[in-house]
Amino acid sequence: MKILVIGGGNMGKTYARSLLRAHLVKKEDLMILERQAEKAEELSREDVGTVYTSAETCLRVADLIILAVKPQDSAALFEKLRPITDPQQVYLSIMAGVTIKSIQDGLGIEKVIRAMPNLPAQIGLGMTSYTASESVTRIELVLVQNLLNTTGKAIYVDDEYSIDATTAISGSGPAYVLYFMEAMIEAATEMGFNESQAELLVAQTFRGAVELQMKNDITCREWIERVSSKGGTTEAALNTFRATSVFEDIKSGARAALDRAVELGKNSV
């Protein structure tokens, strides 16, 4: 199988490297299309597959094409690719907000898988959801799931609304976590810790809490109750969060992200 990654940015390189690392594709069967000459030269030096600057020389021979370009560049890309697409090719899109239908209409194809990865995919700890058009076969879907799993975890969802919901939770989610971490780091420095001490305190606390939750069959609520004691320090902090509606604000923020994802999807049709 020959795989073409269109877009040599961070996510494009992430998938190229992950595929090679997992031995899902041989280096000679992996292609990257990058229009910018400077970036293409840089990619060639990184030795992650054969790099092309023109679609005419690589698209026709690809079995699976990964669309890893910015959503705002999709219309111009589709216009250039449409005359040389093959209906039997499978397209995997990781473009946020670009619907399956807009990809099908733009490229004149049927087999489209839409996925929403997140930033930790770059270190093999990503969370991705994906869905597919009806014409994608089970074998093709399994192949793509194996591909997505090379960057972390992947789950199949039934419709594109769930892709938008994934965007709001795991897609944008790392920013929510880092936002909370930033506040805790700032609080730590205000308490007298230096910057490196504050960052270590907070980063290790988050890492430990996540591992604790994942490795035990206990809910977040139950863990909170175990950490808290009546009249204690944790309860004092949690009471402040409750008084200022932090919990509800987090949910409202996620909902706003979902609404925006749905809006972007409508605009792409």
Structure, explained:
- By secondary structure, the chain is α/β, with parallel strands linked by helices.
- It has an 8-stranded mixed sheet with strand order 3-2-1-4-5-6-7-8, sandwiched between helices.
- α6 crosses α11 and α7 packs across α8.
- The chain is elongated and about 70 Å long.
- The protein starts with a strand and ends with a helix.
Describe the structure concisely.
The chain is built from eleven helices and eight strands.
Helix share, percent: 40-55%
Query: DSSP helix count?
Result: 11
What structural category arises from helix and sheet content?
Answer: alpha/beta
Rg calculated over all Cα atoms: 22 Å
Count of DSSP strands: 8
Portion in strands: 5-15%
Main-sheet strand order equals 3-2-1-4-5-6-7-8
Mean model confidence by pLDDT: 94
Distance between the termini: 31 Å
Order of helices and strands: EHEHEEHEHEEHEHHHHHH
Q: pLDDT under 50 segments (min length 5)?
A: none
Write down the overall geometry. elongated
Which helices and strands occur, and which strands form pairs?
Elements: E1 3-6, H1 10-21, E2 30-33, H2 37-46, E3 50-52, E4 64-67, H3 74-81, E5 90-93, H4 100-107, E6 112-116, E7 126-132, H5 138-149, E8 152-156, H6 160-171, H7 173-190, H8 195-214, H9 220-227, H10 233-243, H11 246-268
Parallel strand pairs: 1-2, 1-4, 2-3, 4-5, 5-6, 7-8
Antiparallel strand pairs: 6-7
Helix pairs in contact: 6-11, 7-8
Question: Which structural traits does this protein have?
Answer:
269 residues, alpha/beta, eight-stranded mixed sheet, 11 helices, 53% helix, 13% strand, elongated
